[in-house]
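Shipment paperwork, digital attachment
Item: protein structure file
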Amino acid sequence: MAGAGRNEYRVDAVDVHAFEVPTDGPGGREQDGTLEWDSTTMVLVRVHAGGSTGLGYTYGDVSVASFVTSQLAPLLEGRGVLAPPALWQLMGTHIRNAGRPGVGAMARSAVDVALWDLKARLLGLPLVHLLPAPHDRVPVYGSGGFTNYPLDRLTEQLAGWADQGIPRLKLKTSREPERDPRRLTAVREAIGDEVELFTDANGALSRKEALYWARRFHEEWDVRWFEEPVGSADLEGLRLLRDRGPERLEIAAGEYAFTAQDFVNLVEPPAVDCLQADVTRCGGITGVLEIAGLAAARHLDLSAHCAPAVSAHAFCAVRRLRHLEYFHDHTRVEELLFDGTLSPVGGVLRPDPTRPGLGLDVKWADAERFRVYEAHPVGSRAREEG
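Attachment content:
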């Protein structure tokens, strides 16, 4: 297949699914600084061509699935699949009036990931070997520590990751700031002094509140990473924290950036010390490659936000790679729905070189009980296989 013509393989079917998985937090709910939720929804896209199937996904509302079905799946019919960036460009142009950011970006991301996975499978390669990857592994940080966790669960979760050899851990803060000192003290005692401690306010604080807590976090608990201390749209506030906060406390944002311009806004002038990108929101694999170039040109590291089963491959192609968020909700959902997920060893995720593409297979029998959407808008193969 390595000698196959560029346009020999064409899309002959697309199917779209969504699965809503309840959370396992106290009372079935989880909280961060600004949001409470009781489930996580994965939108799964499969693209079929040449006897192979590529899969991609994003996390968002079920409306993302409808967007793929109505806007993107019909556009792919009969298209050659060996140049995913060309189809990425086509999708971006097509959804101009339907809306590129938000739901549109997430839909485009899921399809782009599926196209890259499909190409790798057609060529018999793990996805990481198809990409211009200077790395073969991605460092991770454990992420969870929701604000409604009781102290025993909070410390058990973070200390458990530390015991697995993950040297950096993050908890949610700032929903009720007066509770955070006790939470941070308990966590620091549980994980010891050698593990790096990160916090994430999810935009819950005002600028001056964030500056106050930035100093306390760093001075009292040696926190090294403060994510979204103010809302990610408050670029002036992020710059204030970056410029006036403790030198060894990094300000991070970027998980809600959907377009290239969103990332430009975060780095010109710089509003963060480390840039974040979510492969399932920022345009998929193709989007990550574009953002990686921007980060390198601005001498900034890039950190992967969540979706570890995809991010482990995609971010091996990021030259200024920092790490990957090994997020409790997403690792749990991916393990429930897929065979072939990766587990950290020695604080890193290594893509499996023996499995083609992302190395993932859907566990349909397990997934069915979580289904909230299904569509087969193009072709018949998906109907036969699904």
